[in-house]
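Supplementary Methods, section 5.1.

A reviewer requested that the exact input to the structure prediction be made available. We therefore reproduce it here, unchanged from the version used in the analyses.
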Amino acid sequence: MRLAVTGKQGQVVTSLLERGAATSVEVIALGRPELDLADPASVKAAIAAAAPDVVVSAAAYTAVDKAESEPELAFEVNEVGAGAVAEAAAVLQVPIIHLSTDYVFAGDKADPYLESDPTGPVSVYGASKLAGEKKVAAATGNHAILRTAWVYSPFGANFLKTMLRLGASRDMLRVVADQRGTPTSALDIADAVITVARRLKTDPDPALRGVFHLTGGGEGTWADFAEVIFASLEARTGRGVAVERITTADYPTPARRPANSRLSNNKLQSSYGVKLADWDVSTRSVVDRLLAAGQAI
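The structure derived from this sequence is encoded cell-by-cell as follows.
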C-alpha cells in the first residue's frame, strides 16, 4: 500500500514514516516546496505525481494561540488547503484520511463527545479545522475524518517533551488541572491510520466513511499528564519533579481551550476494530524511549 501524506516535519507524518517502514507500507511525505497548502495548484500536482492508494491529510496550521492574530493564514491552510488535498484525492478516485481535532467542540458538555454532537469551536484554530472538515466532506464522500487530541510523540515539539525539558532544570512546575481530555501518542495514531487506510482501500462499505474520534484510552488533565511524565522520569533517573495544579484562569492564553476535550472512540472501535492503548501506558513508553536515546531535552 502506498500512502501520500501531507507534511514532512509533523509528529504524525514522522510517526507514519517509522511505522510504515515496519509494516511494509510505502509512505511518501509531501511538503514544501513541492506541496504548499497555501497553493492549491501545488497540492494537486504533488499528490497526483505521488500516485497513492490512499491520501492522508496530516499537515495543518497548528499554532493555536498565534491563529488568533493570523486567522486568514489559519483558514487558508486548514480550510482551503485541506479542501485542495481532498479534491486531489477525488480526482485520483482514492480515499482520503483527514486528521482533525477536539477543538471543533466548545468543551462545555459533561460527557465525552460523540461524532454526532453539535460542534462549536471557541478558537480560530478550532473554527479553521472545522471548516476544513466541511471542505473535505464536500469534495469527496470517500473520506474518513479522524478527530484526535493532545498529541505527543518522540518527535518535534509537544507537551511531553516540553515537560521533560523544563523538568531538567526545575523541581516544580505549575500545570493546568481543570481541562480534561486524553493525551494521544502520534505513534498510536500512525498505527490506526495504517489500519484505517488498508480498510478504505479495499472495502467500499459506507460505514467506514465519515467522522470518527481517535484518542488514547482513558482520560485525565494536563496536570495528570505531567505527573505521569515525571513519575516515568523519576523511575528511570531518580529525578523527581513536583506538579502544582492550577486553573485555566491562572494560565491565560490568547486562544480559549475547551474545558472538556474528551472524545468517545466507540464508533471507531465498532467500525474498524481500532482501540488505542491507555494514554498513560503510551506516555511511559515515549518517555522511556526518549530517555534511553538521551533525547529528553
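The chain has a mean pLDDT of 96. These observations are discussed further in the main text.
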